[in-house]
Structures are given as structure tokens and as C-alpha cells.
């Protein structure tokens, strides 16, 4: 079974409100068996719109990654995100 990766590119606009999301999402991800590879930290933008946060999270499979996104645990954190808190894209990429 091929691993899968959440790849998120985020521009956090309100750190305090975004932390409410991360305080729920981080532990939920770990409890679900995901591995956080990158979540914040130093970023060098080489092309495109500059964003201030990059997130890469490893899952055991594509199904696992997609099912977690739709889980009740993750939805508890998602309710804190809106356009005033963060602008983001999130994709699932299948590993090789």
C-alpha cells in the first residue's frame, strides 16, 4: 500500500485564532496514526504567491488521508478556520 501525504500551503492571517485549529488538529492527526513531517518553520518561497506556512503530513494510504479529513475529530478543528483566519490550499498526494 502506498503512503499518502497531505500537502497544505497556508497564509495565516490571525495567529491566535489559527492556534485554536492547530491545538485540535495536531493531536487528532497523531492519534489517527498520521506523521507530521513539516508544520510551520522556515520557508523559502521560490515561485508563486508567498505563503507563511507549509504543512506536510504522512498517512498510511490515500483512503486514510481522505477519511481523516472528513472525520468528526478533524471537523472540531476546522470550525475555527475561515477566510479571516487563514487562506489555504490542501491536497492529498500519493507517494511513490
Molecular structure report:
With 96 residues, the chain is an alpha+beta fold. It has a four-stranded antiparallel β-sheet. 14% of the residues are buried. It is built from three helices and four strands. The longest helix is centred in the first third of the chain and has 17 residues, at 15-31.
Estimated structural class: alpha+beta
First-to-last CA distance: 10 Å
Write down the Rg.
13 Å
| Share in β-strands | 25-35%
Which spans have pLDDT < 50 for at least 5 consecutive residues?
none
How many DSSP-defined strands? 4
The spatial strand order of the largest sheet comes to: 2-3-1-4
SSE topology string: EHEEHHE
Choose one word for the global shape: globular
Number of separate helices: 3
Helix content range: 25-40%
Largest sheet: 4 strands, antiparallel
The average pLDDT score comes to 96
Amino acid at each position: 500500500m502506498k503512503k499518502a501525504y497531505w500537502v497544505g500551503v497556508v497564509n495565516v492571517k490571525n495567529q491566535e485564532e489559527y492556534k485554536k485549529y492547530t491545538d485540535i488538529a495536531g493531536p487528532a492527526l497523531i492519534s489517527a496514526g498520521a506523521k507530521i513531517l513539516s508544520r510551520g518553520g522556515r520557508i523559502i518561497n521560490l515561485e508563486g504567491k508567498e505563503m507563511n506556512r507549509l504543512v506536510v503530513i504522512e498517512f498510511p494510504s490515500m483512503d486514510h488521508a481522505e477519511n481523516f479529513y472528513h472525520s468528526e475529530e478533524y471537523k472540531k478543528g476546522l470550525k475555527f478556520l475561515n477566510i479571516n483566519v487563514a487562506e489555504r490550499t490542501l491536497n492529498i498526494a500519493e507517494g511513490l
